[in-house]
Hints:
mainly alpha, 0% strand
Amino acid sequence: MKIGGAALHAAARAGCEPARARSQATRRAPARAAARALALAAALALAACAGAPVPDWQSNARLALDRGTAAYLRGETAVAQAEFALARSELARTGRADWVARAELTRCAVQVASLVLEPCAGFEALRDRAGAGERAYADYLAGRIAPAEIALLPAQHRAVAAAAAADADAALRRIDDPLARLVAAGVLMRSTRASPQTMALAADTASAQGWRRPLLAWLGVQRELALRAGDAAAAEALHLRMRLVTGER
């Protein structure tokens, strides 16, 4: 999942191809997916091409975002909070509010993937100093993106953002990155376009990655749906699965 200002994307495209290829090669690493949302990857690539030493704040921030994302998805709240705080602190050293805003969006994206549908307060405090692409992505996460903003989103999210409820699941299935797919599923849930198929796909995606927090969240909404439908057997099966994930006996 990539977000970032047009200027940094243009810089990345103008950079050396080996660095760009290395960035593309990492897309199959789920724990790095949210960290790639930080457009600082482009700056890292350009620094490497130029042979210049990479400032420690860049590597520290990216590693902290990687670790924070992975910890959050595993359900390790305290570790995730510490790592996200470290990433923000490292980025704040630059005095660049737009870069700090992108890190806050990374944190909010993994929360949406896990159905923690709270306001993205850290980003909102910096909204006026963020770029148009970042503001559009924040609105998308909040489930209120305007049609005119959709073109500013990362390509893999545009179809879900534009889809009517009847077409949303098909658009969701076309997202290859597991974390991006879960983020999009959370957006569908937030914008009341999620179907039972959305919930099942999200649960299957989290299960395949071993991501405890989003798996429990999506199993929970499936169980609630089964209870409302009066399907006691399905609800019990989902409850037993949730207990297995949490280690309950």
